[in-house]
Design brief:
- This protein is low in regular secondary structure and about 100 residues long.
- The protein has 2 helices and 2 strands; from the N terminus they run αββα.
- The chain has helices at about 20-30, 70-75; strands spanning about 45, 65.
- The protein has a two-stranded antiparallel sheet with strand order 1-2.
- It starts with 20 loop residues before the first helix and ends in a 23-residue tail after the last helix.
- The relative contact order is 0.24.
């Protein structure tokens, strides 16, 4: 897994989660946070904690950039409060 650093929340209040896409792409590049492939078409905002399970829709810390394939094929729906059970590319402490 390629660690990503999306930095602190931009100085903007998002009205729609899709508005975060250019900020994520600028900071982590046009790559899927999961398969690490270059996103050649429309990138998608992935919510780490699922919107349907109580995850915050507009919280910067809940966003990752994803390709269409990974966003639609994910098998696990992460419930609010369960982030600690998974390894996330923006929460890695990697040393090389």
């Amino acid at each position: 897994m390629r660690p990503v650093d999306k930095g602190k929340k931009p100085e903007i209040n998002f009205k729609r989660y899709q508005d975060a896409e250019p900020y994520l792409e600028e900071r982590i590049g046009p790559y899927c946070s999961f398969c690490e492939m270059s996103i050649r078409h429309v990138p998608e905002i992935e919510h780490k904690e699922a919107k349907s399970q109580g995850g915050d829709i507009l919280l910067w810390e809940n966003f990752l950039l994803s390709c269409k394939y990974c966003n639609t094929r994910k098998g696990v729906i992460v419930k609010k409060g369960d982030l600690h059970q998974y390894l996330w590319p923006d929460m890695c402490v990697c040393r090389y």
